[in-house]
Predict the structure.
Amino acid sequence: MKKKIFNFKNKKNKSKILSLTAYSKNIAKILDKYMDIVLVGDSMANVLYGHENTHKIKLENIIQHTISVKMGIKKSLLVVDMPKGTYDNLKSAEKNVKLVIKKTRCDAVKIESNKKNYKIIEKLTKKKIAVMGHIEVTRKFKRKLKVEAKTKLEASKLLKEAKLIQKAGAFSIVMECLSPESAKLITKKLDIPTIGIGSSKYCDGQILVTDDMLGTSGFYPKFVKKYVNLNRVIEKAVKEYSRDVKLSKFPSTKNFLNGN
């Protein structure tokens, strides 16, 4: 097992795990100072490409952005979201995951559960490929975000799913939009760390889409805390630039290259 993965797993029950998404070197470089995990998420489909869901993002898009992100990473665990359709069967999963790792030199890949692909995770982990799991709500397989596993029966079924992902060899698992009770139960019962998004404080760690918490994505579900409204900051700067150009205040003499 890679040392970074081993050290990450040891954080369970010791310290909160910090995670955010990145799609470029510049953002990754900032996140790397504070995060345990930097995820190149398929959320780029919505955030960068304007798609209604994550289904249309291509493997080549993920690879290209990860190459950029990798240049900004020194210490964080770099995890890549495998797009929908790239791990439908054992053969395609192995081929596509190996391509991602070869091209990007990432530390791990993330595969969303459809309650059937445990063998795919198992095959990959047996080949020494680090895999992060993902349960409810998985945007590749569901259309609407809502809190899951509110009843004891639902929580029990989700716990069983999580345990199967763990048994298959996943080193961690993302839990999206789970009820606090379910998140607490699963986190307690699993040996691997849980990373929550909209799943309460009871997870071992948290992840958000960086663009959501910075106020640039336009997507602000209740579980996202918007720490700043960068849209306003950016618009203010653009407005000032526009005014300066129109009034011939930019460029000024101090903006000229001196030729040395």
Observations:
- The mean pLDDT is 93.
- The chain has ten helices and eight strands.
